[in-house]
Amino acid sequence: DLALYESFNGIVLAEKEGKDIAACLGNKKAALLQNHGLLTVGGTIEAAVFWFISLEKCCQAQLLADAAAGGRGHETAKIHDDDAAFTYKTIGSPAAGFFSAKPQFDIIEKECGPDYMQ
Q1: What's the CA gap between 35 and 22, in Å, rounded?
Q2: CA nearest 51: which of 34, 29, 22, 20?
Q3: Mean per-residue pLDDT, 103-113
Q4: How far apart are CA 77 and CA 114, in angstroms?
Q5: Angstrom distance (rounded) from CA 86 to CA 9
Q6: Are 34 and 16 a contacting pair, CB within 8 Å?
Q7: Closest to 91 in 3D by CA, of 47, 57, 40, 44
Q8: Which of 22, 37, 59, 113 lies in the 20 to 30 Å Cα band around 52?
């Protein structure tokens, strides 16, 4: 559910690059913009935010694991395809994305009041 956009040329000011990124993303919910960062989408703002936070945490954990393993002359242990598919099925749905981010938005509303949504 992740696309890799290898042609990122900086800030997307040109309509063509925006369309190229959208075409690369396709029906996926996230893209790595090579040498730049992450992009996520969702049916709700909550889902898109959850996918972004989750993907960013995964990237950080992967970088740390790769650095730790590489420092010892090893490679990281990869999870099995079945485990990855089960995880996706469990928390990869749009509803799971919405409900997983909802507490974050509840905290923001409590701290800022409902005006933050205006």
Answers
A1: 18
A2: 29
A3: 89
A4: 44
A5: 35
A6: no
A7: 47
A8: 113
Confidence category of residue 114, pLDDT binned at 50, 70, 90: confident
Quick one: the chain helix, strand, coil %, rounded to 5? 60, 10, 30
Per DSSP, 19 falls in state H
pLDDT of residue 72: 83
Q: How far is CA 97 from CA 28, 73, 81, 104, in A?
A: 14, 37, 21, 12
Q: Which residues pair with 5 in a beta bridge?
A: 33
The more confidently predicted of residues 32 and 92 is 32
| Location of structure tokens 């989408």 | 41
Residues of the chain above pLDDT 70, percent: 99
Confidence grade of residue 10 (pLDDT, cut at 50, 70, 90) = low
Question: What does the longest C-alpha to C-alpha distance in the chain come to?
Answer: 52
Structure tokens belonging to residue 84: 């990855």
| CA nearest neighbour of 92 among 13, 5, 27 | 27
